[in-house]
């Protein structure tokens, strides 16, 4: 466990740990990127859409309930940021539409760089605000990263407990259902024996 934590910390401190995503957005098309993020996590994004004559790009960031967290008409280049309210799936959508009287435009190159948690924090501004030394900044970043990893493990443990409780509850229900089914089968078999015995007696086939 300690080795895994150290490995994650080392990877997070490497340059280029996160990179931008680039894709081509077809004219009149729509592309969305989804990601599950924990509660109370800072999310930042930087986007840039290539210039294509006659094409307008719209950007919208929503959660699983459809709440709009960020929206930008004619999105060309910019940034967005928000803090998650709950653990759920968040969606970033780019949609292309043609301007009035425009012919079909070529595909548009879109570059998106989304960061969350420790990656999204600006430690340079923090160092200036609190007058921290470079080593203190790295220690603060490592501390935040450790807290993030602990929260992830806590959530995983909670999910494991929930799944275990669900499995135990399901097993108990299956056991009760099996016992009830056996009781019904035994009752039906006894009723058939009694019914057939009475029937044969009425026909005087048995005494």
By CATH, the superfamily of the largest domain comes out as GOLD domain
Global geometry: elongated
CATH 2nd-level architecture of the largest domain: Sandwich
The CATH topology of the largest domain turns out to be Jelly Rolls
> Could you tell me the number of beta strands?
8
Largest sheet: 4 strands, antiparallel
* Relative helix content: 40-55%
Return the domain count.
2
According to CATH, what is the class of the largest domain?
Mainly Beta
The ordered H/E elements are HEEEEEEEEHH
Low-confidence stretches: 1-18
- Structural class of the helix and strand makeup? alpha+beta
Structure, explained:
The chain is α+β, with helices and mostly antiparallel strands and 207 residues long. The chain folds into two domains: 18-120, GOLD domain (Jelly Rolls), CATH 2.60.120; 132-207. It has three helices and eight strands. The strands form two sheets. The protein has a four-stranded antiparallel beta sheet, with no helix packed on it. β4 and β5 (68-72) form a beta hairpin.
